[in-house]
Description:
This protein is mainly α. It has 15 helices and three strands.
Amino acid sequence: MFRTIVRKEIAANLLSYKFAIVILLASVLISTSLFVMGRDYRSRLADYQLIRPKPGEPIAVLPPHPLSVFAKGLEDAMTRSFEIETIGIDARTGRSSANAVFAFFPAPDFVYVVKVVLSLVALLFGFDLVSREREAGTLKLALANPVSRATLLAGKWTGNFLSVAVPFLLVSGLGLALLALVPGFHWSGPMLGRLALILGASLAYIALFLSLGLFVSAMTRRSSTSLVVLLLLWALFVFILPNLGTLLARQVVDLPSVKAMAEKRQQIWTREVLLSISERGSRDARIKAMNEEFDRLEEDYRLRFDRLVRLSKILNRISPAAAYVYAATEVAGTGIGEESRLKEEVIRYKNQALAGLSRDRTAPSAPAFVYRYRTVGEVLAAGGLFDLAWLVVFALALFAAGFAAFLRTDVR
């Protein structure tokens, strides 16, 4: 009976205009996103080949990560050129497009399409799971047969989930195959494993919103009411709560602006220059003292920033959209945790490079900057597993709430 209900739901979806329009729209958006982001990756890779440091140059710069095609995250901040100078680190601004129009209409990545579009698609498949058949009177006829409410509800949910998940995976697989043909893309085994985790998180995210649609549909008597309520919840979860959590965290944690930090560094530089002139002290001693003060200033900023990030994540995780973005970007190597670790490695490299330059003035040369991305295990241990588990638990809790509401539903 369960398989019969699943086949019936899939057949009904395949024959509906809703399925054709919604799936076509999602497929076009995912394909376009992968195509545009793939071309953007090739452009950023060409830029890296142009600006990559020569042997001995004290410059730290990373090539673009292939998975940034799927989850752009903080890729622009991570691929900046960090130039080591005697007065600290000069972080160049990221690459910007020559076409100013792109600043107004940036290309959405795969994660953004899933976060916004696929969540709405899941709601459109789930908003009338119960209320539509109750309005038509077919729910009463279905329960008159030897089938339990649990089997009926599980079959309807599974059929609609497969109606969304299978086309989504097919389009994603086709996009991945086409990207493999693009020069510069090298899909290794670990990278495919990361991509599988991103797709798994996407499926859990889709299941969560389908369960939300089931819950609201079981709580309302009309499909039109269910749709309105779900659209409000969708806007709340996807757009309002993530931004609201960040704003609240900024009110709690006092974090200086980037402009204030730059002015403070300039004050330290001016003070040390004047002291070196008036006291005729050692130039190396002044530079060392200035770098130590810069490091203390940067350390204080990073501690405050880390507190802000932790609080923002705690507040934002109320929204499943935020948890999904956190999980996907960290797995892709473009998340907040990876960017923070990169900054720590750049500071460590700066101290190493300056120490080498001060020891050998005749042939100054800096070691090459080498950065190792965190393994999947390290990412999961640092919070990625919590975000993935949170999506699954949230989806199960909503399905359980929908089932409880369905048990109390009067089908007459």
